[in-house]
Amino acid sequence: MTLLDADGLAKSFGQVVTARSVSFHVAAGEALGIVGPNGAGKSTLLNLITGALPVDAGRIGFDGADITRAPAAHRTAMGIGRTFQIPRPFEGMTVFENALVGSTFGAGLRRRAADAQAWEALETAGLTHVANAPAGSLRLLDRKRLELARALATRPRLLLLDEIAGGLTEHELPALISTVAAIRDGGTGVIWIEHIVHALLQVVDRLMCLAQGDVVATGDPREVMASDAVASVYLGSPDLEGETP
Ligand SMILES: Nc1ncnc2c1ncn2[C@@H]1O[C@H](COP(=O)(O)OP(=O)(O)OP(=O)(O)O)[C@@H](O)[C@H]1O
Asked: For residue 2, what are the contacts with CB-CB under 8 A and spacing of at least 6?
């Protein structure tokens, strides 16, 4: 079942084209990876899906409804959750309280249901051991996990991950990869933007490569990474880590 259906999305900032006519779809329980050089338009695409930015043209369908013009809060309530590239938790609040913001204002839950959802999100993200610590005291791995927990607390049916593995050590990656795979296997649709391609390839079912607002290649992850089109996009680029296209 198609969960997200993006058709002909276009977005420019002045002369900078971040999406020319980008189309893709994601099903429930499916993970789509997105790669592309810096400035390709990857994060902007997530902003179009969440409604943080309006599209210039194109249509976004979610669960059969046209959400192209729907406000961001409405999209969150419908089940679109995201993490941000740079974690910005409420530093003075505890880890649990940060998740509670997601379950209360994102998922619209109250009291015990909100508490339970926030706790479940911390469990999935592996953060219960620091539930009462101030978010500002967390090291990078746990800040990334909190970013994930905050998104999970909104009860997403489609989870958008923006470089959730960025900055982590090779030692820290496997647990995060397993967590994302388990979320996908639980039936959530996932879109994962990541420069650490070997991490991405362990989870995603399909891969899309963007460059300057165009879809360069899409399909089987290893075939996409091996394609001449993707190799030429990355020629001489240091953006991809751990994988030679
Ligand atoms: N709000 C904005 N106003 C003007 N230009 C923007 C805005 N947001 C993004 N851009 C520009 O759009 C282009 C695409 O940016 P985007 O962040 O989507 O790329 P990206 O593929 O996510 O890059 P990275 O891998 O470095 O995160 C860049 O040139 C960026 O400077």
From this structure: 25, 26, 27, 61
Task: Tell me which residues have their CB closer than 6 angstroms to ligand 1.
Answer: 13, 16, 18, 36, 38-44
* Full-model pTM: 0.93
The number of CA neighbours under 13 Å toward the Cβ of 198 is 8
**Cα–ligand 1 centroid distance for 10 (angstroms):** 14
Spelled out in words, what is the top-level CATH class assigned to the domain 1-79+156-245? alpha beta
Domain parsing of the chain, residue ranges: 1-79+156-245, 89-155
- Calculate the alpha carbon distances from 176 to 72, 153, 161, 199, 211 in Å: 27, 17, 12, 9, 27
* ipTM of model over 0.90: yes
17 exposure class (CB count in 10 Å sphere: 0-12, 13-18, 19+): middle
